[in-house]
Specification:
The complex is a heterodimer of chains A (177) and B (250). With 177 residues, chain A is an all-alpha fold. Chain A contains two helices and no strands. In chain A, helix 1 packs antiparallel against helix 2. With 250 residues, chain B is mostly helical. In chain B, 68% of the residues lie in helices and 6% in strands. A two-stranded antiparallel ribbon of chain B has the order 1-2. The chains are: A mainly alpha (177), B mainly alpha (250).
Chain lengths: 177, 250
Amino acid sequence: MATNTHTEVPAGAKGVFPPFDSTTFASQLVWLAIAFVALYVLMAKVALPRVGGIIENRQKRIAGDIAEAGNLKAQSDAALTAYEQALADARARAQAIANETRDRQAAEADKRRKALEDQLNVKLAEAEKTIAATKVAAMANVRGIAADAAKAIVERLTGTAPTDKAVDAAVGEALKS
Amino acid sequence: MATDPIQQFQIVNLFPVAKIGNTEIAFTNSAAYMVAAVAVISIFLIAGTNSRSLVPGRLQSAAELTYEFVANTIRSTAGTEGMKFFPFVFTLFTFILAVNLIGLIPYTFTVTSHIVITAVLALSVFLTVIVYGFWKNGLHFFNLFVPKGIPIYILPLIVFIEVLSFLSRPISHSVRLFANMLAGHITLKVFASFITLLGGAGIFGIVGATLPLALVVALTALELLVAFLQAYVFAILTCIYLNDAIHPGH
């Protein structure tokens, strides 16, 4: 720098307020133009499209992510609905199967019971018939026994055997009362 | 150490570059700081976003924040159509912010403390508004000066005021930035020189020097705010002026 010191003297005239020193204007303006135009070109062509692109990219990414999240939510909602539908279907089918089985078994049991009852009724009727027959036979026997007994009693009392016909009529009379 | 508060605004020729007529074009300290600002912004925005990651790092996050900040400023003041001028407004904002902030570092030079710089920046906005306004709207651009619903007898006066205010825009636009930077740096320098003056005056002076030191610290914080605010004001006024070119009807 030592050799350059002669160029580092104040540029303007002495005693003039520097901002109003017109001798320095040309240099300042030339360099302002160069600097400003260079900055403008750098900003307009490189920096601003880049920063703008970054911001736009981010917004796109965020919007995309939100859309994807919405999409996934709709999918999971659909899956949930399908699952609930399937569950309801299965439940309904199970109910139907259970009902059908119960009805069938009830009908079968009913049928078997009816068959059994019929069988029992037949047996009951037969038994009643047997009872009735036995009773008639027994009654006949009772009349025979009663007649024999009466004949024997009368014979002992009177010494003479009554006729069978009179004993029979008397027994019939007694049994009637 | 120089205590002259004006010396910090001195333009120094580092080496000559060209000669146009009688005017010598030199690479000055101002030019060096402009180039530095361009380099800092480019590194910040281009190197910082090199990874193009979906989840940004610190530097990329800051770059995106700057981008969104300027983009939202334009959208809210000039509508979506104003996004045509996004690179222009972004360049203006970051350039002014960078040179303002670099200028706050001690021993550096503040590019925007020169009226010729702010004037050319403001004029570039002014000319953009006029050229785009006429190119897009043709003669309807003059509607800008004729507010609707004004009684006919005061219309000439209103039009005159509107034209005058339109023409004075580049002046207020440039002087606001220039004056803020100039005044802020002079104030800082004046209070800083009090510290050395008092510090050289014995033990009581050293105790007394703490007051201007505290003031300089506070002023530096204020100037940091001003550096950002003036860049923002310059950008938002640019948006408002561009909005006039896009939608000239009031």
